[in-house]
């Protein structure tokens, strides 16, 4: 901690140009979050959020923190050519003063992670990349002591396309790499692997499978309907592309044993179409 300088805002644009830069950035961000999670301001915030919950209500604690962050925020992309992270303490002070913050994915998950740190809830980074982009999106995984499972927490996807706690918007054709709360790189997996669950379990982090399917189907349908109202041909292209790509995925999954129930071709096609539609918004 002592060897890393932590400014109020971290410039990301140059730090995420390669794998080394991403590791360095998430190392900085992890230090920032762990430091701010010990601040009395966030400790008082946690007391106010969790004081009415019984001891051992682990998932309810996660949900209360999640609801606070998503309820007090609006998604606002950074200016073109500029990326920054807002200090979690600054975000909390802004909420106290104005009742709302306008931030993008890195700032939102940093605030969420800092609050989880203050509450003693384990978490890990979910770093996503679209093709030709080293880091296109940042979400979180939070450990539920009750179910002994990692829960996806993607506040940007919640604000943009309504995905609930337990689901994250995966990049079409992209990849996902997990980093620990200390900023250490964990096992990388493909977006498809994360979507359907890592059968090897070596990463220790899996998607809420049923919740993700339900959320993506709902989101994909809504997005396609909205696009179709303006451009029916574009909507048809999105759904057709998703169906073609996911059909092969569904067939492959059915041909080999899996740790989770096999996915039907029709379901896989629908999920693929929904994922592509949802990814257009991020």
Features:
single chain, 282 residues, C8orf32 fold, 5-stranded antiparallel β-sheet, 10 helices, 51% helix, globular
The CATH topology of the largest domain corresponds to C8orf32 fold
Order of helices and strands: EHHHEEHEHEEEHEEHHHH
Strand order of the largest sheet: 7-6-5-8-9
CATH class category label of the largest domain? Alpha Beta
Helix- and strand-based class?
A: alpha+beta
Radius of gyration: 19 Å
Classify the helix fraction into a percent range.
40-55%
Number of domains as seen in the coordinates: 2
Q: What would CATH call the architecture of the largest domain?
A: Roll
Tell me the distance between the termini. 32 Å
| Beta strand count | 9
Mean of residue pLDDT values: 73
* Uncertain parts: 4-15, 190-230, 242-265, 276-282
Number of helices: 10
The biggest sheet amounts to:
5 strands, antiparallel
In what range is the share of β-strand residues? Answer: 15-25%
* Bulk shape: globular
Structure characterization notes:
By secondary structure, the chain is α+β, with helices and mostly antiparallel strands. It folds into 2 domains: 9-207, C8orf32 fold, CATH 3.10.620.30; 208-282, no CATH class. It is built from 10 helices and 9 strands. The protein has helices at 19-36, 40-50, 58-71, 88-98, 105-119, 155-161, 191-196, 209-230, 232-255, 265-279, and strands at 9-11, 73-75, 84-86, 101-103, 123-129, 137-144, 149-153, 175-180, 185-190. The longest helix is centred in the last third of the chain and has 24 residues, at 232-255. The radius of gyration is 19 Å and the shape is globular.
């Amino acid at each position: 901690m002592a060897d890393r300088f932590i400014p109020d805002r971290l410039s990301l644009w140059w730090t995420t140009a390669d794998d080394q830069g991403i590791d360095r950035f998430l190392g900085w961000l992890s230090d920032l979050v762990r430091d701010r999670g010990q601040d009395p301001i966030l400790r008082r915030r946690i007391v106010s959020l969790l004081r009415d919950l019984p001891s051992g209500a682990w998932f309810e604690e996660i949900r209360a923190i999640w609801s606070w962050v998503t309820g007090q925020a609006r998604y606002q992309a950074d200016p073109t050519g500029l990326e920054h992270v807002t200090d979690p303490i600054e975000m909390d002070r802004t909420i106290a003063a104005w009742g709302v913050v306008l931030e993008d994915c890195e700032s939102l998950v940093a605030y969420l992670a800092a609050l989880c740190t203050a509450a003693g809830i384990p978490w890990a980074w979910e770093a996503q990349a679209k093709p030709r982009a080293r880091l296109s999106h940042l979400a979180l995984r939070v450990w539920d002591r009750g179910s002994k499972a990692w829960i996806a927490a993607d506040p940007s996807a919640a604000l943009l396309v309504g995905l609930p706690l337990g689901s994250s918007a995966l990049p079409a054709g992209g990849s996902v790499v997990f980093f620990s709360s200390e900023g250490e790189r964990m096992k990388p997996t493909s977006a498809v692997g994360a979507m359907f669950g890592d059968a090897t379990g070596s990463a220790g982090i899996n998607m809420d499978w049923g919740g993700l399917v339900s959320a993506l189907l709902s989101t994909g349908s809504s997005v396609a309907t909205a696009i179709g109202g303006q451009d029916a041909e574009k909507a048809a292209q999105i759904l057709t592309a998703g169906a073609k790509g996911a059909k092969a995925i569904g067939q492959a999954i059915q041909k080999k044993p899996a740790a989770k129930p096999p996915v039907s071709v029709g379901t896989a096609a629908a999920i693929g179409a929904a994922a592509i539609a949802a990814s257009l918004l991020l």
